[in-house]
Here is the input.
Amino acid sequence: MLNEVTLTQSNEFAFETLSPDLILDAIESTGMLVDSGLLALNSYENRVYQFRATLDNKVGEEKFVVKFYRPLRWLDEQIQEEHDFSFALDDAEVPVVAPIKINGMSLHHYKNHRFALYPCRGGRAFENDNLDHLEWMGRFIGRIHLVGQAFDFKHRPTIDTQAYLHRARALIQASNLVPMQLETSFYTILDMVIEKTQSLYTTDNIQPISLHGDCHAGNILWTDAGPHFVDLDDARTGPAIQDLWMMLSGQASQQELQLDTMICGYEEFCSFNKAELKLIEPLRAMRMVHYMGWVAHRWQDPAFPRNFSWFQEPKYWEQQILALKEQYAELNEKPIRLLSGL
Here is the structure.
């Protein structure tokens, strides 16, 4: 979503030049022999396609995925650091889908486009109401964080209130998408949420680590062998709880049970700092505001009005006013607790 590069430069959407012929030429510039057409996969931030190809003149074709990175979003050093983190996780036998190295390189360039190639890995949706799955997830997130504790990002951004709240707010306001009749109500509650979140999001006595960063159910695929993680595109530095709280759903009592189950698995590999429990609702608020800022910032990309048409309807902003009011109430409640008393 939002980061330092996109927030300080104007939008330039070079995806218009990403024709099927250019995509195929880019892939084949790496030495792959493409044996099929391209199947576009769901991705708004980048452009992602599945295809079949022969690699290194091996007998038989395989399925692969190519991801073209959004121009101006990341520096090359930031993308490479994401790749290197995935390689470190793969070396530690954490089930992530890491990019393919060709001639020692994982980040490729072709006619002003940057792209990476991945093996195609399938799976079914993660069941975040399945306690067995949650315990399993806790163990794997613990293993990610065990690697993340020793892998310091030097180029990737940090989760902070400046980017997730204040810059996001500025982008929403600059977009002029909030209906005039709702502006006062929307910005009043938004500013209340921002002020409260700012006061609560403190990382004193909390050691930030390298994270997956966007560890929600949609970025986890489940097989009979267990989960595997995809899309480290939002990997960054932050508190460990960032990779855990997005697994929670339902009422507070359900979330407490879910979190307790995950932490039991997590602590097989990493010690969990209970001080981070206080960050769950501030992080939830930051994600809400960050998301609105992300869509607003991307509005000039034709894919966004087409796929997020409801974003310009008054009903959506009315719902956001209500959601922000509910989140403000949550911010004023006591933090979630661990049932086990860990």
